[in-house]
Design brief:
The complex is a heterodimer of chains A (123) and B (258). Chain A is 27% helix and 29% strand. The chains are: A alpha+beta (123), B alpha/beta (258).
Chain lengths: 123, 258
């Protein structure tokens, strides 16, 4: 269950981003591919535990699940694939490269601000 | 708006929410620590192998046999990762090489920071190879780069030949797959090395698959030959990196002198 460790890494990144901003962390959105080795449901379970006592406490975790896509090194076709069958859907060859599906990314953070952000107040 | 269409954008300032786009890898801190470890290894011309498998697949037995075979030619050390006990480190030390035990105290994987701490207890200047024996687990260790040069994944005959299909993240990361305990193959009729190899290919992984038995010393030559081949390749890149660094170093200082 390394999802707790992943959540702690996530929250430390959130902390770095919000350090110089005002506002409460409302929602944290991550992108997870099936080949990242992270189980979305376990990440959801671990998230509130990892948030306790941090700037992200009380925030919501939103997970975007990415699809697996491969490009065939033999025929050049691009196709979707299953985690344990990364084969070309066109010619069936196993010699493919992964285009997406192993993501483990922090995408964006939504902050609830008390007042108008500075830059828009000046516009 | 962005939330529904998923468009990549900008910083949007709504009335009372602010959305900050980040696009950072979640394990960025671990990856940076791993790169730092790799620099340590490369600076000292040390080659690091990360050895992963389920518990009891024979990692320590393989290392014991390997140390005996390579000790005349290479200076070896081992970093042992376990939840508890230093049994494995003691087994390794009995073969006359230094071993540092990391007890993770429940953590299911090694991370780059733990390995970095262990490196401080090793005389890197006096070493050629560091084997990192990861925590026995086919899931979690696959997500954490340690700064190794190659990943070696063991699959024992008793586990079944479909493990690569069940643990795709781990077996996709393998640079070499070792099918171990093959001395038991005669009584394990269900285990078919070719099926295991096909399951690895289905992960688009071209890694060599070698069958062996460490205890009965079957086919250890093929494993040793792979190791020696990779050591030569990695040393060549370390040589290049070292020369490039030296060149850059001189170049860097030149204007100051002039």
């Amino acid at each position: 269950m390394h999802e707790l460790a992943i959540c702690q890494a996530l929250i430390s990144q959130v902390r770095d981003v919000v350090r110089e901003r005002s506002g409460r962390v409302q929602r944290v959105r991550v992108g997870i591919g099936p080949l990242s080795g992270v189980e979305p449901r376990l990440l959801e379970d671990a998230y509130p535990l990892a948030c306790v006592g941090t700037c992200a406490e009380g925030s919501q975790l939103a997970i975007e699940q990415m699809n697996i896509r491969v490009r065939c090194r033999i025929c050049g076709a691009e196709s979707e694939a299953a985690p344990n069958r990364l084969l070309c859907a066109a010619c069936g060859d196993w010699r493919t490269e992964l285009l997406s599906g192993d993501e483990l990314m922090l995408l964006r953070i939504e902050l609830e601000t008390q007042e108008e952000p500075m830059e828009s107040a000046n516009v | 708006m962005c939330e529904t269409c998923g468009c990549s954008a900008h910083q949007t300032s709504a009335k009372d929410t602010e959305t900050v786009e980040v696009l950072g890898r979640l394990l960025d801190a671990n990856d940076r620590a791993a790169d730092h470890n790799r620099d340590h290894f490369d600076d000292h011309r040390v080659i690091a192998f990360n050895i992963m498998s389920s518990p009891g697949a024979g990692k320590t037995a393989l290392l014991e046999a390997t140390i005996d075979a390579l000790k005349p030619d290479f200076r070896i050390a081992v970093i042992e990762g376990d939840l508890e006990t230093d049994n494995d480190a003691r087994r390794i030390r009995a073969h006359g090489v230094p071993a540092v035990q990391i007890t993770t105290g429940g953590a299911c994987h090694l991370d780059a920071r733990m390995v970095h701490e262990a490196l401080h207890d090793l005389p890197l200047r006096q070493l050629d190879i560091v084997f990192i024996e990861n925590v026995g687990n086919l899931v979690c260790p696959a997500s954490f780069d340690l700064g190794q040069h190659r990943n070696i994944v063991l699959l024992s005959a008793t586990e079944g030949d479909d493990k690569p299909a069940k643990y795709p993240v781990m077996f996709r990361a393998a640079d070499l797959v070792l099918l171990t305990k093959m001395d038991l193959a005669p009584v394990l009729e269900d285990f078919e090395p070719l099926r295991a190899e096909k399951a690895v290919r289905d992960l688009a992984n071209a890694a060599p698959v070698i069958t062996l038995s460490a205890r009965k010393r079957i086919n250890l030559d093929a494993w040793e030959a792979w190791l020696r081949g990779e050591i030569a390749k990695i040393r060549a890149t370390q040589q290049t990196v070292h020369s490039a660094n030296e060149a850059r170093h001189e170049h860097h200082h030149h204007p100051a002198v002039a």
